[in-house]
Amino acid sequence: MTTIRTFMSDDHRRCDDYFAEAEQALGNKNLEAARAAFGHFRTALRAHLECEEKTLFPTFEAKTGMTMGPTQVMRMEHEQMRALLDEALGALEAGDTDEYLGIAESLLIMMQQHNMKEENILYPMCDQHLWAELPAVLERLETELCPE
């Protein structure tokens, strides 16, 4: 059976793949391809963050009563990642690849640390506490992340 941990971790990998495409395009000196790949990455990551904030976190908080714990930390980190996404987009749009690469490095480090916390702490907690509602929660998450 699919779990929240496996489903959301798979989505982390999907976002990571788009991010890597942007880096690879820049490495090939193809700014337009980098902009396109970063656009896909930005859309996918923002959808992932919004899905967690709109569905997963509130469901977990309602079930556990924990509103000041891990979900609060994740929300703060989401805001920091959104700010870096916007800064990176601005740098790419301006054609400032050096600026982009610096921001992208900060974003990558933040995402790696964030994803580790979610995948090893929060998602297993969600699976444990939301086990009875797991099929319904997964269906909602899938609908939000994969609307086609």
Automatic annotation (TrEMBL):
Protein name per Swiss-Prot or TrEMBL: Hemerythrin domain-containing protein
Boundaries of every Hemerythrin-like domain copy: 5-126
Positions in coiled-coil regions: none
Pfam families the record matches: Hemerythrin (PF01814)
Taxonomy, superkingdom: Bacteria
UniProt xrefs under InterPro entries: Hemerythrin-like (IPR012312)
Gene3D superfamilies: nmb1532 protein domain like
